Amino acid sequence: MRTPGSSARPRPLLPFAAGNRAVGVFVQRESRAEAATWLRGLLASRGADLAKKLPRAATQLASWSTDRQTALTRPVRGALDGFEAALSAAGLLGSADARKVLGILEGAQTNDSFGDRLVALFQTSADPVLGLVIAAEVPESRLRAMLQSHARGFVAVEAVRRRNPVGGVPAALRAIHAYLGVLSNEMAAPLASGVTASDAKREDDVEKILTPPAVAHARAAAAAAGLPPPAFIPVRYYEDLMAALHRFVQSQFAYYDSWNRRRPMDTTKGGRVEQIAKEAKDRVDAIFGDYGSRSAPALTFDLGNLADRTRIAGDPVDMVRYFVNEGADAPVTTVQQAHNTFEDAAAAQVIEQRVIDHYSGRSAPAAVNEVAALRNVGMATAERQRRLRIIDRMWGGAAQGGNVSIRAREGATARETRGIYWGLFKTMIHEYLHTTEDPTFKTWYGGLTDSHHKTTYQEGFTDLFTLQTWRSLFPNEIAANRTLRMRIQGPTDGDLDMGAVGGEPDHYPELAEAQQLEQLIGVANIRAARFKGNTAVLGGGKLPR
Q1: DSSP letters spanning 100-120
Q2: 495-540, pLDDT tens digit by residue?
Q3: How far apart are CA 16 and CA 14, in angstroms?
Q4: Which helix (H) or strand (E) covers residue 525, if one does?
Q5: What count of other Cβ atoms lies within 10 Å of the Cβ of residue 311?
Q6: Triad 396, 402, 403: Cα angle to 5°
Q7: Tens of pLDDT along 139-160?
């Protein structure tokens, strides 16, 4: 259960999503004067008449405090009402353009303050449909995080749906109206709503999703040619896998060894690393707390469930096991596909285990072909073990048995370190999520034979929820919340630096299968299995295999 993304090939940074470009521009203007000037320009683009009638409302909205308590005071409510009144007086309250402007303004806030305003808007806006319009402008993960964690979130969602009877909802807003209905049901009964029993069709569909595309293609090609289905090819599998594994390990070593020479982070009690771990838990629990994550303990050095893995000895065996069975890159997976290992996972794993044992130095080969294959890698056992230990110690993060370890190393420059802290935050989200798995679910996927199936449930599901957590923050919350930035970047560093923040977390390839499973069976069933051990809903009756 290692965090992906520790590769030497970082992902390109992602720009603001197309639907959030205007929000992204606005939230970076933190002064009242800048925001007011920008807003007037935006309103002017909708027509001179609108710009003349709304300058005062523009100034009021631009000066709103982002403080959670201030957001609930009468002046803020008055500013919102005043803006709606100005739109109404201009004859624009019912126009889609005016609603979109208001949606952008509401989006330029922290999750807490935006949640307060959204709750107020849902219940008391002059035009009931404005609540739906603004909700439709918000990414689903952010909307869920705001409303589920708000004391009046459920009441507000019920109110906006009641104020907008389904028969009168404009066609463009029916999707968000339906989504709020799903959210309302889940908030009322988080462990039961949307959970459905599996059946034979679901099992067939799940099996299709979990069949790797290369395997499906090979099977189809064989059938088209009138040939029998592909079978596992054991001949030379040991030799080919040993050579590919060594190439892959050596391609990674220089990157991880460079981390070994960097300055350690401050990992004292209550320090930056613990603050990042706490923030990760809080953000995960805002979305998944009601489904079971909240009961998982916070990660702290005192409890012993958080550790700096750069101080461990390193485990060559586990590192090789991971590369062969879970986190292999192209050199290894290409060999596995060429030998059709998916078609007989049990037989393939017998050979894979010998490769793991021999390459890591846990035992020495005896068969003539195996002795020759290991000799051909051209590196002594002691040197292989040294390199594997360094890679293991400098791995980005890992979770095992409820304990998380992370690579606590700083960058060569202050800005590089800032980016490392944001990477650590993403790692903490992923690894904390691993600690929230139900034991029954872990036992279930641990019994699967094929490593691809196992990794889909173990890592693909974790990546699915990691991504949803990240999308509840990026880019709006990160850009609007200086306190959050200081917690991640440091108590004296609240600068907004989206380049250092980076884009979405790196992930396992099996995220694609997890997302397909979400589309097939629904996220409610995935949550029920992962957080509460209800594996029967997954449609895995044909598993383990």
Answers
A1: HHHHHHHHSS-HHHHHHHHHH
A2: 999 999 999 999 999 999 999 999 999 999 999 999 999 999 997 6
A3: 7
A4: helix 523-532
A5: 11
A6: 45
A7: 999 999 999 999 999 999 999 9
